[in-house]
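Section 3.1: Structural characterization of target chains.
Under the original work plan, the team committed to producing a structural model for every single-chain target entering the pipeline before any wet-lab resources were allocated. The record below documents one such target. The sequence was received from the expression subgroup and is listed exactly as submitted; it comprises 112 residues.
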Amino acid sequence: MRRRELYDAASGGGGPRLLPWTSPEGKPCYLSSDGRGYLSTLADSIETVQLSMGKELLEYARDVTAPGAKALSASEYRWLACRLAEALADALRVADSRGQRIPDQEEAAEDA
C-alpha cells in the first residue's frame, strides 16, 4: 500500500481509535469516527506533543547520565525516572493506538 492509502486505512474503518488520554478513573477512551473530525485532529496533536516531549526528555536523560556529567541529587534522579516512565507510557499508548489502526496484510490484499 502507498503511504496515503495506509494513512486513510489507519484513520478510520478499523474500529474505534484508542485516544491518547484516559477517563478520570484511568480507563481507556476510544473514538469511533472516520478519522477526520475535531477529536481525531486533537488526538493527533496530543500524540505529536507527547512524542516530542518524550524525545526532549530522552535527550535530557542522556545528557545528565553521560560520563563526566555533573551528578544529580537522588530526588532529581527520581523525578527523571518518573518523567521517563510517563513518557514511555505515552509512547506505548501511541504505538498501540496506531498499531490497532494499521490494516492486516491479509485485509489489505483483499481490498486491493
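Residues 6 and 41 are 17 Å apart (CA to CA).
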